[in-house]
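Collaborator request log, item 7. Partner lab (contact: R.S.) asked for a structural prediction of Short-chain dehydrogenase/reductase family 42E member 1 like protein to inform their binding assays.
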Amino acid sequence: MALRYIVVGGSGLVGGQIVLQLLQRGQAPSSIRIIDFVPPTRDELQTPMAKDVEFAQTDISSEASTLAAFKKPWQAISAKLPLTVFHTAAAIRPSERHPLVYHRHARVNVGGTANVLSAAKSAGADIFIFTSSCSVALRPVTWFSPLWRRCPTNIVQTMTEDDFSAPLRPREDFPSNYARSKAEAERHVCAADSPVSGLRTGAIRPGNSIYGGAGDFLVSATLNLPSLPTCTAPWVQNWAHASNVSLAHLLLEAALLGPHVDKARIASRPFLVTDAGPPLRFDDFYTAMKAVAATFPTVRYPPPVLMMALRGSSNFGKTITWALWIENRDHRQFYAITSN
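Returned to partner:
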């Protein structure tokens, strides 16, 4: 089936991998458009064929900018083809939790997603698939638990999609602002599914860290560090390679396009995706990288008491932030003094 594609965030890790897999399966470059804030820089997207993919520089937090990128004319050979939109762009600041800085994520992840979805509808999109996150299902860990508990609350969690069928949790029940913003955007996208209008939507929740390719936030970022202070060595969690995450998007698209599929069970919902095999321990990752990498940073293990002290200073910073905000809210002033 001949199709055309818009990949929002196509200069990034997952979006770029989707573009590459589309080209590898024979998709014409003229039928693919990358929408992103910056042009792609990864080597695989600099080949003669990949460079023929159209790029539209866009700020998705701007409704006008997003709509203009979607409304750009296509080449005549592709202009009338059905349109699939993959929305992979996101603001990612995993350490931010304070409500006073939630807007830093919401502006792109919630408002930007709404703009992309609106523009996709205006462009007559048939399929809209959103890149969510498995962190949507997670809850924050309570590190300072009562002494009679053997371990912190929520230190062990099983990732599922069950939360999607329940009401959206309060902000404080998410591990980060990023997770909360992804949860909001995911529900907005899935609620837009409409068999009547012909727009079918769904979401992919990659879990948990995404790696693969130069510039990723896990392997590549670690290898570029001179020193790696970490408290995560014993932690165990699922990972997902960017190529597997990309393939999950393409498989969901195929299912939504299939004529003999029960779309009521597939559309308007998220699917969690991880690599095959058991979850990986971070210390095993460090060991593997030491064995195969030409250079690897020195791994340092700060004492737990230091981490507790940092956590205490974080809570103190929150208190100061709230006090300053309350004191100055009548003057419409905002002071962000927080370790979060």
